[in-house]
Write a structure and sequence with these properties.
alpha+beta; Thiol Ester Dehydrase, Chain A; six-stranded antiparallel β-sheet; globular; Thioestr_dom; ACOT13
Length: 152
């Protein structure tokens, strides 16, 4: 439960910044987290659709970005670095009202880079698969100095 609470505090910090993450993913709900992984859900709403009525690829790419960051956070990181590489394979579609299950895993956090894998599903159907690499050297320094809301 401590890991889930930590990841929720990191996510709240993201949302409080008021940027793109807060706009696109305000409905994201963290379901569970353990060291190195987390599970989140997002219901597809009208703002998430492309012109053909399917879940927009930009949204799925954003989910891979944020999901990877939250998986890094599950490794006791407050700051989660900056993206250096993002790869998304769009496997099938999702539509209005579908609930996306987002399974994120931090494969490795090193001194300079962190590697993550994100799987997005609707039920047992894979919608997208993503890999996300982040530069974390400066995040390690920030983690020594940074406090999240609710921390002494």
């Amino acid at each position: 439960m401590a890991t889930l609470n930590h990841v929720k505090r990191v996510w709240t910090n993201f949302l409080n910044q008021g940027g793109y993450d807060a706009h696109a993913l305000s409905g994201l709900k963290l379901v569970s987290a353990s060291k190195g992984s987390c599970l989140a859900e997002l219901e597809v709403s009208k703002q998430h659709l492309n012109r053909l009525g399917g879940c927009h690829g930009g949204l799925l790419s954003t989910i891979v970005d944020v999901g990877g960051s939250l998986a890094i956070a599950s490794k006791d990181m407050h700051a989660t670095g900056v993206s250096t590489d993002l790869n998304v394979s769009f496997v099938s579609g999702a539509k209005l009202g579908d609930t996306l299950s987002i399974n994120s895993r931090c494969d490795r956090v090193g001194g300079s880079l962190a590697y993550t894998t994100v799987e997005i599903l609707v039920g047992d159907k894979v919608v997208a698969l993503g890999r996300h690499t982040k530069f974390v050297r400066l995040a390690h320094i920030a983690n020594k100095e940074m406090k999240l809301d609710g921390e002494a």
